[in-house]
Structure formats: C-alpha cells, structure tokens
Write a structure and sequence with these properties.
The complex is a heterodimer of chains A (193) and B (188). With 193 residues, chain A is an all-alpha fold. Chain A has nine helices and no strands. The mean pLDDT of chain A is 88. In chain B, helix 2 crosses helix 3. Chain B has 188 residues and is mainly alpha-helical. In chain B, the strands form two sheets. A two-stranded antiparallel ribbon of chain B has the order 1-4. Chain B has a two-stranded antiparallel sheet with strand order 2-3. Chain B is built from six helices and four strands. The chains are: A mainly alpha (193), B mainly alpha (188). Chain B: Its EC number is 7.-.-.-.
C-alpha cells in the first residue's frame, strides 16, 4: 500500500510531468490564460491519461510482447491514444452534454499532448504492473493539472501587474514557468520516490 | 516483419471498427429546428438581436428564450417566414433592436484610413482586408452590412452604401396588394 502512495506522490510532486520532466508544455502555456479553462483541460487530461496508461499496458503485454514486435510501441500507442480520445469524446457527447460543453475543444486537443504519449512510454520503461501503470497515469495527470491550475492562477494575477514592456505576454509567462520549475526542484529532496 | 504488419493492421482494423460502431451508437442528432431557423436568418452576424450571432439567436428562438421579432436585417419578410415556420403570430419588428434598412455594404474612405486595424477586429465575417499601418478595404461581396465596423473607427472613415439594384442582384418582388380604405375609394 505504502508503495502505491509513494508512486503517486512521486508522480505528482517529485517528478512533476511539466516542471521536472518538461513534457506537455504546449497546453501548459496555451490553455493557462484563465483558471476555468485550465481546470477543464486538467480534468480532461486526467481522464484520458489514466485510460491511456491502462490501455497501453494492455497493448504492450497482450499484443507487442507476445508477437515480439516491441519496436512498434510508439506507433501503436499513438494510434490507441488517438482512438481513446475520439471514443471518449463520442461517449461524453452522448451521455453528458454539460461535461462536453465544459471540456469543449480541450478534449480533441489532448491527442497532441506529448505528456499523454510520454507517460505510458515511461510507464513501460519502469516495468510497472497494471495497477501501478494506472496510478502512475492518474498521478502524473494530477501533477499536470496542478501545474496548469497554479500557473493559470499566477497568470491571472500577472494580467494586472505592471510588467516591463519587453517582458509583456509570453516572455513573462516563460520566466514564471522557469521560476515555478525551480520551486518544484525543492521536492527533489524527497529522493525516496 | 510480417507479424509487425499484421499487428498494426489488426490494431487499425479493430480500432476503426470500434470507432465506427461507437459513432453510430453514440450519434447525437442536432436540433433540426435550429438549422431551419438559422436558414431564414440573414447571417449578417450583426448582434443587433442581443445574441452573439445568427446561430445563437436561432438556438434561443428554438428554446423559446427569444422572440421572433428581434432581427432588423431580416426585416418584416424574415419575421413572416419565422412566424410561418414556428406557427406563431406575426409581430412587428421590435424597435429596441433597430430598424429595417435597405441592404448596404460598408465602404472605407481610403484617403482618410490610417490603418489602425480596429475595423478588422470588429468584422464578424472577415470581409475587411488590410494590415497595421496599411490602407484597409472592404471585400464587398463578403460584407453583410452589419455596421459593426463603423463604431470602432477612430477617424470615422467608414460609411454604409446602399447596394444599387443591378441585373445581377435584382430579385422578383413578392406580390403586394394594397388595401385601400373603402371611404377613400368612394370619395375618389
């Protein structure tokens, strides 16, 4: 049990997918202008990434290893993730139009989020079992949502701040992201994970 | 090599079949009424009805949230068509939303234009071409005559020009029968 808790804390804080692994920067910078959209994107990504980790574990162990074609891993994971995102969108559109409206454009955008491909690939590298893969996916996605929401909050404050002209807009956002990344390095001291 | 091809082909076939099945099973029918109402609206995207465009107004009418007489560019004719479609009574145009005007397109006085791009940002149909500090001009066939570009212009160089009837734009008029009061006819 303790092993699983360490796995989650490690994925959320110590090896935060955005600040430490530097994955998924495109939505991190693109969808963090407003707090609500950041929360929507975080929720959608968490959902898809957990599913993606679970299904890529199944693909790896039921398809790629038995047929001895492990070199097809990246290709087959991309196909499976794209299909999951499509399927999720169809199901949500039918079952919960409200949720579909909230997630909106962010759902299809997840297909191109490199964190969603990177985390399942890492999970295979770490030789996780099925439960570990699911928790690793959910934990990493929670870390992504945390980073996104924190960053969106800071950016909303920055809108009202007096930023020197050369730093306005994306420049100050990148500086902020760098500082937050430095702050998250503090968690590296928890090197048990 | 062959097993790799078979694995990928099998994966693609299974996923394709699953998605195809899901798209049939989870199909969401759009509201056909909204599309019919939207087809009647003039698509000026002018926002005079108080909604951000023609489609949101059509949705609001279909949901019973908006009345049918809020569209000045559609005019009397549009209200009649909407009343027929929805089986409601005809109402005159709500004056709060504006008055019906003859179809017009915007025109930029290019001598006065300073190239500020404010009208470009206001145009809902991207019918203005130009760039910062370059002269702007209206692409007349695309202009819907919504007048949204007039207010932002800092030098007031945009005017509305009524579209003259040409052989290309002429349309058959609906027949109108004027009802004259009986008394008037008797005196005449």
């Amino acid at each position: 049990m303790a092993h699983y808790i360490f796995l989650i804390i490690g994925a959320v804080l110590v090896n935060n997918v955005v600040f430490v692994r530097i994955l998924g920067l495109c939505p991190f910078l693109g969808v963090s202008k407003k707090l609500e959209t950041a929360i929507g994107m975080g929720a959608a990504t968490t959902f898809v990434l957990t599913l993606a980790c679970g299904s890529s574990y199944l693909i790896e162990h039921w398809l790629l290893i038995p047929f001895d074609v492990a070199y097809l891993r990246t290709l087959s994971f991309i196909v499976v993730i794209a299909a999951i995102v499509q399927l999720t969108e169809l199901v949500i559109q039918k079952t919960s139009p409200v949720l579909h409206q909230v997630l909106g454009i962010y759902l299809p955008l997840i297909t191109t989020n490199c964190a969603v491909l990177g985390i399942p690939l890492l999970s295979v590298n770490y030789q996780h079992n099925f439960m570990e893969a699911l928790l690793f996916g959910a934990g990493s996605a929670t870390g992504f949502s945390l980073a996104l929401v924190l960053f969106a909050g800071i950016r909303e404050r920055l809108e009202g701040a007096e930023v020197p002209a050369p730093f306005k807009g994306t420049a100050i956002a990148l500086v902020t992201a760098g500082l937050m990344s430095l702050a998250f390095m503090g968690f590296a001291g928890l090197d048990k994970f | 090599m062959l097993s790799a091809l078979l694995v990928m082909a099998g994966l693609a076939i299974v996923i394709g079949a699953a998605l195809g099945f899901a798209s049939l099973k989870f199909k969401v029918e759009g509201d056909p009424l909204v599309d019919k109402i939207d087809a009647i609206l003039p698509q000026t995207q002018c926002g005079q009805c108080g909604f951000p465009g023609c489609k949101p107004y059509a949705t609001a009418i279909a949901n019973g949230e908006a009345d049918i007489n809020c569209c000045p560019p559609g005019g009397d004719d549009g209200i009649h068509k909407l009343a027929d479609l929805l089986g409601r009574d005809y109402k005159p145009l709500n004056a709060e939303n504006g008055v019906e005007k003859p179809k017009a397109v915007a025109f930029i006085d290019e001598q006065t234009c300073i190239g500020c791009t404010l009208c470009l940002q206001a145009c809902p149909v991207d019918a203005i071409s130009g760039a910062a500090k370059q002269m702007h001009t209206i692409i007349a066939p695309l202009c819907t005559g919504c007048e949204l570009c007039i207010a932002p212009c800092p030098v007031d160089c945009i005017t509305m020009q009524v579209v003259e009837e040409t052989v290309d734009t002429w349309k058959w008029r609906y027949p109108t029968f004027l009802l004259k009061p009986v008394a008037e006819r008797a005196s005449a």
